[in-house]
Design brief:
By secondary structure, this protein is mostly helical. The chain is about 50% helix and about 5% strand. It has helices at about 1-15, 25-30, 35-50, 65-75; strands spanning about 20, 75-80.
């Protein structure tokens, strides 16, 4: 039941607002199209080693994320 509630909350956050890639948890990042556990961890790793993202386009610098993935998620993410 707890997992169901968490899933609904994450879905609602994606539906009603962009995922902040500078603060999102792995679970929140995984709600993005084309982002699974491995890519979510890479986003967090990059964010920590570069003191956050300065622009959404910087996601292409993350291991495993290329221009196609960026285009899929670009409207779903923010840096604020």
């Amino acid at each position: 039941m707890f997992r169901y509630v968490i899933s609904l909350l994450l879905l609602a956050s994606v539906m009603f607002g962009a995922v902040n890639i500078n603060t999102a948890t792995s679970a929140q990042l995984q709600t993005l199209e084309g982002v699974g556990p491995a890519k979510a961890q890479e986003i967090i790793k990059y964010r920590r080693s570069h003191a956050g993202f300065r622009s959404v386009d910087e996601l292409v610098n993350v291991k495993g994320i290329g221009p196609k993935t960026l285009e899929k998620v670009k409207k779903q993410v923010s840096i604020r």
